[in-house]
Amino acid sequence: MKKIMMIGKIGCGKTTLAQRLLGEEIHYKKTQAIQIIGDDIVDTPGEYLEQKQFYNALIVTAVEADVILLLFSAIEEQSSFSPRMSSMFYGKPLIGVLTKTDLCQDPEQLTAGREQLRLAGAEIVMEVGLGDSECIQRLRNIIEGIKEG
């Protein structure tokens, strides 16, 4: 698997998605520091996105990543992503992942979430219900299909 870095607000589903991508049992926990899950997934604390003084940590951590996933919850109303945030990551491929789509009742929130991810610079936007195995497999396929370099 390619080395993946996940960025998103607190509670958007980064750790759960990492566990799902690896086929692990779901263990809910608060990510307190940058963690490596399995051998290939870097899970970042939501505070690193929400507090701009931590952007340097995101930039440095991204150097080793092959792909960056920007996660935004479909049930969240406010984004913490800066417009064109992708420019911080020196040409790394960015995939926007709209999470918790299975919990969203409002189609306008889905549209708004996709737009937030595109504004942040996501080249591809994927909608994922964290309990939907087909969505998880499609995301794996997209990640593996990205050309390196």
What does this molecule look like?
The protein has 149 residues and is an alpha/beta fold. 32% of the residues lie in helices and 19% in strands. It contains 5 helices and 6 strands, in the order E-H-E-E-H-H-E-E-H-E-H. It has a 6-stranded mixed sheet, sandwiched between helices. Helix 4 (107-120) links the parallel strand 5 (94-99) and strand 6 (124-127). The longest helix is centred in the last third of the chain and has 14 residues, at 107-120. The protein is globular and about 35 Å long. The two termini are 15 Å apart. The mean pLDDT is 91.
- Specify Rg, calculated over alpha carbons: 14 Å
Nearest-integer average pLDDT: 91
Q: How would a crystallographer describe the biggest sheet?
A: 6 strands, mixed
Order of helices and strands: EHEEHHEEHEH
- Uncertain ranges: none
Distance from N terminus to C terminus (CA atoms, Å) equals 15 Å
Helix content: 25-40%
Number of helices: 5
Overall 3D form? globular
Number of strands: 6
Strand content: 15-25%
Helix/strand/pairing class, anyone? alpha/beta
Spatial strand order of the main sheet: 2-3-1-4-5-6
Task: List the SSEs and their pairings.
Blueprint: E1 4-8, H1 14-21, E2 35-37, E3 41-43, H2 47-50, H3 55-62, E4 67-73, E5 94-99, H4 107-120, E6 124-127, H5 133-145
Parallel strand pairs: 1-3, 1-4, 4-5, 5-6
Antiparallel strand pairs: 2-3
Keywords, separated by commas or semicolons:
globular; 6 strands; alpha/beta; 5 helices; 19% strand; 149 residues; 6-stranded mixed beta sheet; single chain; 32% helix
